[in-house]
Amino acid sequence: MDLLVVVPHPDDETFGAGGALLLAKEAGLRTGILTLTQGEAGRTLGLCPPEALGEVRRKELARAAEILGVDFLEVLSFPNGLPQGAEGGERGRASGESLLDHPEAEAAIRERLLALRPRYLITFPPDGINGHPDHVAASRYATQAAQGLAQVVYFVRPDGPYPVTHRLRLPDWALARKLQALAQHKTQALSVLAFLERHPERLWTETFHQVGAEGLKEGPWW
Length: 222
Description:
CATH architecture: 3-Layer(aba) Sandwich
Strand content: 15-25%
Number of helices: 7
Number of domains: 1
Number of strands: 8
């Protein structure tokens, strides 16, 4: 395994690193996705009963992963927490916990790293980009689990607190497939639309911070 994306929810993989997964696969690398929750607390948009959302989102992720061409996909079942101020809209079942309540997720990630031996692990930066507790927890656990095993790379905002060390500008074919992958996450269409409204440029330009690297490189780090 060359590149493993570790995120809390189905759809995070495509928002943050869909283009990187596509370009790495095109370059002949082996890629994978590990999500720590099933995303069972997200919005349903009336497309399924609340209790079925986790399974529906697993299937949405499987379709997206096929489009992204990954070699490995696994979905764990730690609880999906809600973002601060989450309200309105029909949601799936939330337990009241988040990933922050489950530090044992670090050991689960490390177990996969030991088995897969990826050279690079991609995840959220420490602030979770938007402060979502699951994003923050996933970054913390993945970064700690990767010590001595994989080089950590964060997908970051171009204007955020973590300096961009690598910028990927997606060719047309990769942008088209990234959009197709995003479209598989139908239950999360409002999140997709909000992303398109706020950050349209991040569809075709993905920015990353490689831990320990300096300067800016146009292109991949692998």
